[in-house]
Amino acid sequence: MTRVSSFLAVFFLLFLCLLILSRRTRHAEAVAPLRPGFYAQSCPDAELLARDAVRRAMARDARSAASVMRLQSPVVMGKLNWAQGCDASLLLDDTPTMLGEKLSLSNINSLRSFDVIDEAKEAVERVCPGIVSCADIIVMAARDAVVLSGGPQWKVRLGRKDSLSASQEASDEIMPSPRANASSLINLFQKFNLSVTDMVALSGSHSIGMGRCFSIVFRLYNQSGTGLPDPHIDPRFRRHLDRLCPAAGDGNVTGGLDSTPTKFDNQYFKDLVMEKGFLNSDQTLYSGDGRTREVVKRFSLNQEAFFDAFVEGMLKMGDLQFEQPGEIRRNCRAVNNQPLAQIYNLSRGIKEVKMLQSLLLN
Ligand code: HEM
Ligand SMILES: *[C@@H]1O[C@H](CO)[C@@H](O)[C@H](O)[C@H]1NC(C)=O
Ligand SMILES: *[C@@H]1O[C@H](CO)[C@@H](O)[C@H](O)[C@H]1NC(C)=O
Ligand SMILES: *[C@@H]1O[C@H](CO)[C@@H](O)[C@H](O)[C@H]1NC(C)=O
Ligand SMILES: *[C@@H]1O[C@H](CO)[C@@H](O)[C@H](O)[C@H]1NC(C)=O
Ligand SMILES: *[C@@H]1O[C@H](CO)[C@@H](O)[C@H](O)[C@H]1NC(C)=O
């Protein structure tokens, strides 16, 4: 790395920090706690309209629920990361070679589920323009996706602002890796004040949805570089996965994250106990760590316990988002103020992030 680009990288980070800090102080007094019924007066139909959009999307394609729901995890965490700004440690603490794989997680699914958010946002904007944030629509839609898939019902806390970062891609940066083991997941969630129980319960969102072969071939054929499969896969289930995902096959083929991928239930945990988890990051919760195994066992035996812990985890995760300065976006895909969008455009910033990484790692 040349001295000039090192300088540029540092300058970029400083610039970002200053910008974020100045925005933050300017908006500091606007901060108010999230609460249920935030739009009861200003846009009473908001929640109804959002649910209708999710329902329509699910009628078109049952998987929409999962795809919408998935947004809450990376979006919340991604934005929190950028709100912290100056300490972009989460973004940087993986090795440069991991970046490429993480980026490829920004996949077709995310794009597709953004259509649902757009649809909900448009419906809400028609009735009460400029009132309801996209962040709140995502949180409502994620809840609705769970409810409409047979999961628990709960009151979401609302009143978020949308981040000033334009890029949905940003969130993919810190999506936890499907290769992650239980202890690294515990540590990752700890950074957001989410407990072991929260983390296991939130992983239970994989009770709905699909994963790609791309995300599991390493564990089928070369777990941790051993040249062997993950030992924690039930033999019959492994034969099934081997057929679905042959070593040199199409990485875009998908399989259910649990054996009932359109139903939100505790089957996911039962599957883990039987070593029939799809993702390594799921199976490791049972097979890789005593702390998480206890929670998996409990949820596999008691669906109510899972639902209660899941709601608590979703509320906690939703509350995290609040720390950031922001606005009510008119269009969920772009910040209102375009020049800022370009500065914050992380998909453009990837280059700078890579530079920073090598700077910090060398
Ligand atoms: C514990 C850490 C987590 C890891 C390692 C993880 C990883 C993954 C991976 C690798 C996929 C499949 C992507 C693909 O192959 O295309 C996936 C899908 C999914 N994730 Fe997670 N995730 C985690 C936590 C969460 C949380 C907290 C939520 C929800 C709040 C969530 C919701 C989902 C959903 C619903 C899908 C299915 C999406 C679809 O079918 O389109 N995940 N996750
Ligand atoms: C879990 O993964 C982390 C990071 O990849 C690694 O440093 C650690 O040794 C692993 N822990 C176990 C118990 O395998
Ligand atoms: C976690 O909790 C501590 C102590 O309550 C607090 O200082 C910190 O800001 C929290 N971190 C996050 C990411 O919310
Ligand atoms: C398995 O992974 C290791 C480390 O990533 C690599 O060196 C090795 O060539 C891989 N083996 C096979 C059979 O792909
Ligand atoms: C999956 O599909 C996308 C878009 O359709 C394509 O760009 C990508 O190369 C495919 N990935 C794999 C692993 O086949
Ligand atoms: C962000 O950067 C990418 C890559 O340079 C570009 O294609 C995209 O249009 C930019 N987005 C915005 C909102 O400026």
Automatic annotation (TrEMBL):
Annotated S-S bridges = 43-128, 134-332, 213-245
Any GO molecular function: heme binding
Q: Which organism is it from?
A: Apostasia shenzhenica
Instruction: Name the residues that bind heme b.
Output: 206
- What job does the chain carry out? Removal of H(2)O(2), oxidation of toxic reductants, biosynthesis and degradation of lignin, suberization, auxin catabolism, response to environmental stresses such as wounding, pathogen attack and oxidative stress.
Q: Name one GO biological process term.
A: response to oxidative stress
The protein's enzyme class: oxidoreductase
Q: Which reaction equations make up its catalytic activity?
A: 2 a phenolic donor + H2O2 = 2 a phenolic radical donor + 2 H2O
Q: A Pfam family in this protein?
A: peroxidase
Q: Does the keyword Metal-binding apply?
A: yes
* Record key words, sorted: Calcium, Disulfide bond, Heme, Hydrogen peroxide, Iron, Metal-binding, Oxidoreductase, Peroxidase, Pyrrolidone carboxylic acid, Secreted, Signal
Query: Where in the numbering of this chain does the Plant heme peroxidase family profile domain appear?
Result: 33-336
Q: Can you say what this protein is called?
A: Peroxidase
Q: Which residues bind Ca(2+) 2?
A: 258, 260, 265
Reply yes or no: does the keyword Ligase apply: no
| Cleaved signal peptide residues | 1-22
Name the domain of life this protein comes from: Eukaryota
Where substrate binds, per the record, is at: 176
The cofactor note reads:
Binds 2 calcium ions per subunit.
What subcellular locations does the record give?
Secreted
Q: Which cofactor does it need?
A: Ca(2+); heme b
Enumerate the InterPro entries for this protein.
Haem_peroxidase (IPR002016), Haem_peroxidase_sf (IPR010255), Peroxidase_pln (IPR000823), Peroxidases_heam-ligand_BS (IPR019793), Secretory_peroxidase (IPR033905)
Alphabetical list of SUPFAM superfamilies matching this protein: Heme-dependent peroxidases (SSF48113)
Provide GO CC annotations from the record: extracellular region
